[in-house]
């Protein structure tokens, strides 16, 4: 059996392993619904959460239930779990020697390129829902600039 977790860890994936079985689920509620499992609170995880705001070692609030780490896949054979990392986010260092205007221009270029690459219909009118926030307003402004057929907005 192969199990994979998304590279950024957006979707949760949990597992519980005993001598006889491995239970895998994308929801902790699954483990609560299982009648044969005696769940106990993980007091160390609760203490870490209350003092530090986070957990360690992919622990959950229940003893014996763990989160699969992000950007990993697992091979499970005969109740043995082998972990493999398939992605590591590359973090680039910030060059603090540049001035503010340079960073603004770099952001505008990246923002423009991303929006342009995501437009599926550059030669048709596009509709947008405006929430009144900066995100939707910025996107709508740029799409209208890129798309020669314009943009229709609804708020």
Characterization of this structure:
The chain is an alpha+beta fold. The protein has helices at 28-33, 43-52, 100-118, 134-146, and strands at residues 2-4, 14-17, 22-25, 65-67, 72-77, 80-85, 126-129, 151-154. The strands form three sheets. Strands 1-5-6 form a three-stranded antiparallel beta sheet, with no helix packed on it. The protein has a three-stranded antiparallel beta sheet with strand order 3-2-4. Strands 7-8 form a two-stranded parallel ribbon. A hairpin with a 2-residue loop joins β5 (72-77) and β6 (80-85). The protein is elongated. The chain starts with a strand and ends with a strand.
Task: Give a brief description.
The protein has 4 helices and 8 strands.
Helix content: 25-40%
SS elements, strand count: 8
| Alpha carbon gap, first and last residue | 48 Å
Number of helices: 4
Which shape, going by the Cα principal axes? elongated
Any idea what the radius of gyration is?
23 Å
Main β-sheet, in a few words?
3 strands, antiparallel
The succession of helices and strands, N to C, reads: EEEHHEEEHEHE
Structural class: alpha+beta
Unreliable residue stretches: none
The overall average pLDDT, rounded, is 84
* Spatial strand sequence of the major β-sheet: 1-5-6
Approximate strand percentage: 15-25%
Topology of this structure?
Elements: E1 2-4, E2 14-17, E3 22-25, H1 28-33, H2 43-52, E4 65-67, E5 72-77, E6 80-85, H3 100-118, E7 126-129, H4 134-146, E8 151-154
Parallel strand pairs: 7-8
Antiparallel strand pairs: 1-5, 2-3, 2-4, 5-6
């Amino acid at each position: 059996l192969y199990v994979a977790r998304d590279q950024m860890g957006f979707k949760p994936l949990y597992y519980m392993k005993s001598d006889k079985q491995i239970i895998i689920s994308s929801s902790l509620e699954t483990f609560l619904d299982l009648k044969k499992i005696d769940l106990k609170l993980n007091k160390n995880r609760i203490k870490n959460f209350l003092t530090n705001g986070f957990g360690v070692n992919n622990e959950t609030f229940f003893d014996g239930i763990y989160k699969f780490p992000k950007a990993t896949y697992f091979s499970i054979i005969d109740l043995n779990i082998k972990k493999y990392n398939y992605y590591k986010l590359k973090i680039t260092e910030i060059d603090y020697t540049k001035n503010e205007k340079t960073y603004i221009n770099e952001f505008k270029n990246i923002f423009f390129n991303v929006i342009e690459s995501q437009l599926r219909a550059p030669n048709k009118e596009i509709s947008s829902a405006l929430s009144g926030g900066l995100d939707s307003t910025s996107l709508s402004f740029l799409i209208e600039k890129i798309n020669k057929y314009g943009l229709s907005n609804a708020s």
